[in-house]
Amino acid sequence: MENLHQHLSQALKQLRQANGWSLTLAAARTGVSKAMLGQIERGESSPTIATLWKIATGFNVPFSFFVQSGAQPSGDVATFSQPNAQMQVRPLLPYDARLRFDLLEVTLAAGAQSDSSAHESGVIEQVVVLEGELLLGMAGSWRRLQAGEASQFAADQPHSYRNPLASPLRFHSLIHYLQRS
Questions:
Q1: Which domain holds residue 136?
Q2: For the chain, how many structural domains are there in total?
Q3: Which contacts of 143-146 are long-range, i.e. CB under 8 A and separated by 24 or more positions?
Q4: What are phi and psi of 120, to 5 degrees?
Q5: For the whole model, what pTM was predicted?
Q6: Residue 79's closest CA among 158, 148, 175, 170?
Q7: 62 and 99 both lie in a single domain
Q8: How high is the mean pLDDT in each 10-residue block of the chain (181 residues)?
Q9: For residue 32, what is the domain's CATH number?
Q10: Residue 93: CA atoms inside 13 Å, Cβ hemisphere, count?
Q11: Can you tell me the distance from the alpha carbon of 113 to that of 106, in angstroms, rounded to the nearest whole number?
C-alpha cells in the first residue's frame, strides 16, 4: 500500500507540473481542497476513490492513471481500496490511450454506497454486474441490476453505486473517455 501512496504522490506532482498548475489552481479545477491536494502530494493522506475521481476528471486523465503501478517494470496494476474499505477498484487492463478506455473491477462492501461526481463532458460508462445486486443512481432515480445484467449511461453527470445486500457487490466498469482536442 505504501508503494501505491508514493505512486499517487508522484503522479499528482507530475500532473500539476506538466500542466503548470499551482495547488490553488489544481484545487479550483478538481474541486478538491488545496490542503487535501498538498497532503496527497506529501504522502500524508490516503484519498478516497471519490477524491481520486475528482482529481482525474479535473486533470482530464483516466482514473487508472492513479492506480497503475508505475514503479513496477511490468506495468502491473494495483487494487486501490478506500481507507474505510467500503470500495475497491482494480484496473483489469492498463489504460489504452488509442482506444481511450478504462476497464475496472469494482467491489462494494455490504450496504456501501459510492457517489461519483460528473466526469468530463461526453464520457460514457458501461457497468456489468458480476456478483450481487447494484443500485445505479442518476438524476434522482435508481435502477436495479442483478448479476449478469448491464447498463450504459452518460457519466458526465453525478451518479451513484449502491449495494443493497448484506454481501459484497462486484461489477465491471468500462469507461469511454472523449478524444482530447
A1: 80-176
A2: 2
A3: 145/171
A4: -60, 160
A5: 0.79
A6: 170
A7: no
A8: 74 92 94 94 84 86 72 48 74 85 93 88 95 96 97 94 97 86 51
A9: 1.10.260.40
A10: 12
A11: 12
